[in-house]
Amino acid sequence: MALPAMNTILYTTSLGKHTRPVFRHAVNLANQFNAKIVMLHVVEPIGELGHALIQNYLDENLVKKMHDEGINAIKDQMRERVAAFCEDELASLPAPVELNIEHVVIEGNHTDSILREAKTISADMIVIGSENTFGHHSHTAQQVVKSAKVPVLVVPTGKKFA
């Protein structure tokens, strides 16, 4: 039985040090299907109390500038991680691998943002990491699997909590 074609893979990342196995799976799938990877990082928005406190001390234009700089820093970090991964792991393959990766940073609830982005980009699959403790997946991974309209590949990250 042949697998259906895949054009777009949504790879979600926390940018943590335990996310390499998840990225590796997304890269393998993208390479196998000649698919594009949309690398998504979701940032929780600052709460109302935090926003009110900041507004009391900083000008709104400065707050917006700091916000935009923070988002750009996250995108730069994503590009650096991809470059480091490619240098470390893909260079050792017998044939060169060319990746088509788009970096997306969204503010919002993790689960809702992942599902919304998957729909927006018409993702064929979602690849998500899961901190695997005592055989249980993370809450976000559970909710994405439960609600997704496309297949979800959940990759254990190996991260353990004490």
Q: What features would you describe in this structure?
A:
There is one protein chain. With 162 residues, the protein is an alpha/beta fold. The chain is 45% helix and 19% strand. The protein is built from five helices and five strands, in the order βαβααβαβαβ. It has a five-stranded parallel beta sheet with strand order 3-2-1-4-5, sandwiched between helices. α5 (139-147) links the parallel β4 (125-130) and β5 (152-156).
| Overall pLDDT | 81
The tally of beta strands, per DSSP, is 5
Q: Per the principal axes of the C-alpha atoms, what is the gross shape?
A: globular
Main β sheet profile: 5 strands, parallel
- Strand proportion, as a percent range, falls in 15-25%
End-to-end distance: 43 Å
Number of helices: 5
Q: Please write the string of helix (H) and strand (E) elements.
A: EHEHHEHEHE
**Strand order in the largest sheet:** 3-2-1-4-5
Helix content range: 40-55%
- Helix vs. strand class: alpha/beta
Write down the Rg. Answer: 17 Å
Low-confidence stretches: none
List the helices and strands and how they pair.
Elements: E1 8-12, H1 20-33, E2 36-43, H2 48-57, H3 60-88, E3 101-107, H4 110-120, E4 125-130, H5 139-147, E5 152-156
Parallel strand pairs: 1-2, 1-4, 2-3, 4-5
Helix pairs in contact: 4-5
